Amino acid sequence: MQKTKIVCTIGPSSWDPKVLKKMIENGMNVARINAAYSDVAELERVAKLVRSISKEVALMLDIKGSDVRLNDFGEAIELKKGQEIIVGNSSEDKIYPKNHLTLYKDVKKGQVIFFDDGSVKAEITGVWSNKIHCKILEGKVLKPGKSMNTPGIYLSIPTVTTTDKEQIEFAIKDKWDFVAASYIRDARDAREVKKAVEGTDLKIIAKIEEGMGVSNIDEILEIFDGIMVARGDMGVELPFEKLPVIQKELIRKCNEAAKPVITATQVLDSMIKNPSPTRAEISDVANAIWDGTDAIMTSGETSAGEYPAETVETISRIAREIEQHDTPSLISIGPGPDQEFKIDYALANAAFDMCISADVTKVLAISRLGQLPRLLARYDLPVPIYTLVQSDTLMRQLHLTKGIKAFKFNKFYKDRDSAIDGMLRFAKEKNLITKDDRILIVGRSSVETFHPNLFEYIDMREKEL
């Protein structure tokens, strides 16, 4: 079983049902929709498309938040070094920041603005009449709808905008699985996103894209359910030579917190136009997997590229090869503030020892909240972790975590032994186990009167169902 998960951005290149089906067959686990380019009608259309092909693929809404973007001003603008452009403050202007019209209040003369993930660099020469006057320093083309980065400037834009809230409300109603929030800087931003999904089953993913988010990662991780290492904007906001170290550190912290981490942006960028990746891109993906990332995420490769299905297949091929060289490791994971999870930590540590010292071929975990299998996934066990959960939503959400294959299983039994036999029969019916397997069953079983903790070694060569 492939451990590494694949998140794919859905766009025009992947709207064809045949193409999307092939992407799923090639290993896609999560469909990401970039809300910067979508309205609620588009979200609904893409969700129906994904669900018509697979009920197991999770849906992720990526909200704009404080991600500032240009308006859709039509034809791309040719640029020359030294040329002046004016960033206005209303729809009457040729160019303006469509989701932060008061950007002019946050910036001042002498500061630098980047457009389109750093492909255009401009210096602010002055701010007057509520407009930002800029001189082009680098770049040849300014494209509509692209990102704006203001390194070192704390923007006054809300973390969750009115449009974001409307899209989140739809995602809640339509039973989506994840919300990814842009430019999370600190606990204050994190709490604002948390409030928007409070009382729902949605899991929230923090996109770490600039220096404050990196510095405050510990407090952010306490509130969010996982993070995305968004290297595109991060490479503009921070010195690019720092990215490899930052990426490794963020992945390490997520592994220690037992929370999923996504490595994103330009992973196979050349495959937007070419059927094969560069050797450097192959190494980039491989190193992210070696570092412990849960998932690799595509952007333009699958939303606007010419080879979306081939891109997914390429990531799968790299992952399967690298995973053969994984070394199981009992990393230090503290129990944290949640007392109810202490038993899960103890069970996970014992399961690691059992998998390494005994002849275990499969782990069968049963979980109410998903914490135990996420803990097990941190250890890079040499066996698959088949996880039984009670809800479709949790099943899909666990498919963002490496090494886990989840199934809905909401049956209840009169006693512990009946529960164990029921789990084994279910796994056998799903062709997850064979008569030659040695299985470790771990978790909290579905017994009618209570949920006893399980830690059971089953040799199927000696077991009759």
Descriptive account of the structure:
This protein is an alpha/beta fold. The chain has 15 helices and 20 strands. The mean pLDDT is 93. Helix 12 crosses helix 13. The strands form four sheets. An eight-stranded parallel beta barrel has the order 1-2-3-11-12-13-14-15, surrounded by nine helices. Strands 5-8-7-6-10 form a five-stranded antiparallel sheet. Strands 18-17-16-19-20 form a five-stranded mixed sheet, sandwiched between helices. The chain folds into three domains: 5-66 and 158-323, Phosphoenolpyruvate-binding domains (TIM Barrel), CATH 3.20.20.60; 77-149, Beta Barrel (M1 Pyruvate Kinase, Domain 3); 339-462, Pyruvate Kinase, Chain: A, domain 1, CATH 3.40.1380. Residues 1-312 form the Pyruvate kinase barrel domain. InterPro entries: Pyr_Knase, Pyrv/PenolPyrv_kinase-like_dom, Pyrv_kinase-like_dom_sf, Pyrv_Knase-like_insert_dom_sf, Pyrv_Knase_brl, Pyrv_Knase_C, Pyrv_Knase_C_sf, Pyrv_Knase_insert_dom_sf. Residues 346-448 form the Pyruvate kinase C-terminal domain.
